[in-house]
Amino acid sequence: MEDAATPGPTRGVTENRGVQSAAGRGGALVELTPTPGGLALVSPYHTHRAGDPLDLVALAEQVQKADEFVRANATNKLTVIAEQIEHLQEQARKVLEDARRDADLHRVACNIVKKPGNIYYLYKRESGQQYFSIISPKEWGTSCPHDFLGAYKLQHDLSWTPYEDIEKQDAKISIMNKLLSQPVALPPSTEPSFQGFTH
Prior knowledge:
The protein is 48% helix and 11% strand. The chain is of the alpha+beta class. The chain has a four-stranded antiparallel beta sheet with strand order 2-1-3-4, covered by helices on one side. Strand 1 (119-124) and strand 2 form a beta hairpin. The protein is elongated.
């Protein structure tokens, strides 16, 4: 009877030793179980199996693929920078060409005082001398005495604009003048916007 009344060591007692010792220190802990609610939180297959050599191959392939993506990404960015450099070089070349042309045109013979905003017509004599005139080939008609080389507008910054680019350049200058005269109308956005200034 005593044997029946005295419970022997059971699994529940063994599992609760940690809980009882913690309770003896003045606190109680929730029982620990490897399968709470009947579900295993960690797969025994992944925690107890030996290392798979194929995992190292897969890892190496992933690292190689990452290296390829990083290289491709860097190449794309460098390509964009190279295109921007080429564009800047082209702009610099045009600036130098325009500056050389403007300097040459300012040395052309002219018997009148040149005023910004006016259009001047470039002619060439039989002697090879070039000169500016305010008379256009249309005004000369069939009696134009010399070869016509081109027409240029003298801008207020003393640069010269070829006749075919005058309308385009005047439109740009007009927009810039509106922007400068109405600074309060600029949008707060950091992105450039000329809305309202082109009409």
